[in-house]
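Form P-L/3: holo structure prediction, ligand (R)-mevalonate.
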Amino acid sequence: MNQSSRLPGFYKKPLSERVSMVAQWADLSHEEQETLLGTHGLTASQADNMIENAIGVYALPLGIATNFQINNKDYLIPMVIEEPSVVAAVSNAARLFRAGGGFTTSSDEPVMIGQIQILDLPDINHAAEAVLANKSLLLAEADKVGGSIVRHGGGARDIEVRPIPTTSIGPMLVVHLLYDTRDAMGANAINTAVEHLAPHLEALTGGRVNLRILSNLTDRRKARAQGIIPAHELATDGLSGEEAVAAIVEAAVFAEVDPYRATTHNKGIMNGIDAVVIASGNDWRAIESGAHAYASRSGQYTSLTKWWQDTEGNLRGSIELPLALGTVGGATRVHPAASLALKILGTTSARELSEVAAAVGLAQNLAAIKALATEGIQRGHMRMHARQLAVAAGAQGDLVPRVVQAMIKEGNIRLERARSLVQEITGSTLSPAPGTD
Ligand code: MEV
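OUTPUT (holo model):
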């Protein structure tokens, strides 16, 4: 079915109506809708089977980013995040990209790296040669323990050697096993394979194996997204479209050349990416560490995105980063909300999921630098803050926007003012929301 993710006014609808719209979009059952509403989600006993010493569950908001069009396909994108403004910012940015034809994405084959550290080598160069000379045997050996991943067409692809002749503990040979994990993130498969290869490598090299573990710098498994925003879409009250494009490019160059700015710039990108990674039940620490290591690959920490003005004056942006995400295994199918998120996304492979996450990162980055380079981010944040204060003062339903509007108009965004406005409008003092007094 060809549905449009362009849902104007979605944010203004009551939560129950939003759930119905998403349910219709993704053909969700009644039980699945209950999962979204928190009445039927992850139970404490499921949690008990996921981690040690479990004592309960910890909930976070799950939102939907609208307007995304990626490679001519529309997506509603589930995002799990506690920070206000991110889902709205990403949806607004996706609308701007949509005006330029949407996102175009690509990704590498899902190839991970497993590392084996070999020490106490009689001759590091001979050891490296011996490993390479026996590549085919080692790859076949790794596939013997590959299980379902090998049955699904994945498995060992290549062996590389990285001799480090001088370290404080003597010469070290690092062997990399390149391993295609298909739709799994693949941590277990890789770790099993490198543990299995260890005794074979000791026999070949005469050395002693110490660590056998995957690398989270998954730079063979990158995803990319790019898009165009017509300059006129960026015009604000004070700036023409072309001026806004120039200011955004200036903001991007700041992050390219200065690690202090790049860290905040990339943090914003990860606001978007992590929210999709968490929603889909993937390991966001793995994604974070890979992203920041990749941002440092030149020796200087820099931006994960690039922004420039094209010959027609429009804004163009691109992002590239390692994104080892799975759509099978781990929590992706165990956590009821994660499998639901994948259903809403409608992605059919891990590669597609990683491309969607890259597009969300690019959208978040645009929203942040556009706001920073034009009106600043505090205006939007103050609106959200005013909303939280209105709710804290006991406002509900239609009263919330009235109190918010009045506080913004007066430029007086404080809890006492929210309370007095509630009193003025309703003629009574409402009980504050729980935990706000
Ligand atoms: C806040 O969570 C993220 C930003 O600081 C990102 C940025 O500065 O680009 C707004």
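COMMENT: Confidence is low (pLDDT under 50) at residues 433-437.
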